[in-house]
Amino acid sequence: MDSLALGIDIGATHIRAAIGNSSRILFKTFEETVNQGDEYAIANQIIKLARKIPEKLISKIVGVGIGSIGPVNIRRGVIVKPSNLPFRKIVITEPLIDKFKTPIYLVNDCVAAVIGERFFGAGRNIDNLVYVTISTGIGCGAYVNGGLLLGKDGNAHEVGHMVIDFNGRLKCGCGGRGHWEAYCSGKNIPKYARLILKKADKVKAEKSPLYRQLENLTSETIFLNARIGDYLALRIVEEVGRLNAVGFANIINMYDPALITVGGAVILRNIDITIPIIRRNINKYAINRIPKITPTPLGEDIVLYGAIATALNPPIQLQDMVKTSL
Fold it and tell me: N or C, which terminus of the chain has less Cβ within 10 Å?
């Protein structure tokens, strides 16, 4: 039987756990992410969540891979001031080493995802590969010439915090202004929608059902109304897509990938709307040759696949940085 690994996906909304081998996921479970407690609250939740996994599987793991919202410090095994969780520091690695007695690999969730894409998904045999997620937050992971990019702490891919609006009209969850995530993430699209309304044709806008619920808008409602041809919803979706094209063009200009795969709830639930707008606008902003841009075939499990792949086949760059045992 192939070696087994435990994969963990720490998100702002959910924590997910899975056991898998080199070919597939064998078991998975999830629960809502805790948003209160001390710096060990998330690690304790992971330990609790692992109890839902059959003992016959958990007893055979050779390592634990963790893809987490950032920023992370992978040398110290901690998450530092995450934008979308109310903690200043979250200690991950050491409590899990104590519990599982195996190597623990903590990386940014999008780093895990691009590893998953390269081992399990559309990125096999591709040396220049980027994965982008647009969900509660925005991020990416990248291979350049076959090398996984990490950075000094493991945060070489915080593209959601690149500035796309130098006027800084909207404030990001991290405290910065004008960041891509502040405009185009699932959490923040409604805030950007209210800005767009100020420039919209008021007579047309007032006919939209969205106009009467501006203070209670959700991204889901906006995309739902865009599908039925609502003027205001279509205007919002088009403007969000244009800014997404700016973000993708910046990624292309920085990393020059041969393939970009895309995931995250905002994209995966609206593939037919979101990706065509990005493709239609990206040539206005990119200088490098445009690569293929496609949804990830691994869907919402991509971080889990990546966490499992990281534990089974830790990249050499990660081995040099991560404290895997006490």
Answer: N
Q: What is the CATH number of the domain that holds 82?
A: 3.30.420.40
Domain span at residue 273 reads: 122-297
- Are 179 and 58 found together in one domain? no
Smallest CA-to-CA distance from 233 within 270, 196, 180 is with 196
pLDDT tens for each residue of 251-287: 999 999 999 999 999 999 999 999 999 999 999 999 9
The confidence score (pLDDT) of residue 1 equals 55
Whether the per-residue pLDDT at 325 is higher than 50: the answer is: no
* 116: in domain: no
| pLDDT of amino acid 323 | 54
Q: Are residues 73 and 130 both part of a single domain?
A: no
**Tens digit of each residue's pLDDT (9 = 90 or more) over 150-159:** 988 888 888 9
